[in-house]
Amino acid sequence: MRDHVVEWLFSLLTSRDRAVAIAGDLAEERERYGSTWFWIHVVRITLTLWRSTVAESPVGVLALAAAGLVLLAASALGGFATVFLVPRSEFARWLTLPFVWWGGALLTGASLVGLAPRQGMAACALVAVAGEGLLLGFGGPAVWRDPSNTDFVIFWTTAVAAVAALVIGGAIASRRMAAWSAAPGERR
Q1: Residue 12: left (phi > 0), alpha (psi -120 to 50), or beta?
Q2: pTM value?
Q3: Which of 40, 85, 128, 165 has the CB geometry, 3.0–4.6 Å to 102, for a possible disulfide?
């Protein structure tokens, strides 16, 4: 039984053929060892593929991650600015923040993969993990200490969800690039 989600996940960090082979091997063993074993190994292999991509070109991945942080910070600043530049309607002010920030995060993920198809997704994951760590480490205690500060809670929640948009943007770009690089008869 093929697991297309696992193949897709692996193909974000390695070649399509290699991803299909690894996912196929895992699917064969799932019947013998069970679903828990299967998903634990999916996570381990994903981390191993990410680590090997970073090890192949650590400077390249770090440079892409730094560029991603700059792009993501620019979209965050743009979202933050719209909150204070939009007229005083609370609903309109806070509705613009996620659109600007998440749109910038999607664009950042797609840009990183577009700049370096091989290392782009690894850089997206690095930015996502670093960003979430910083947000949870610094912002989390402030939200839990004073949940009545709705402005900060909305801003923090939007920031936490922006990381998902970053990874989704990278995944979409990776998939599109793989489709375009396929032979004309194989395109879907």
Answers
A1: alpha
A2: 0.74
A3: 165
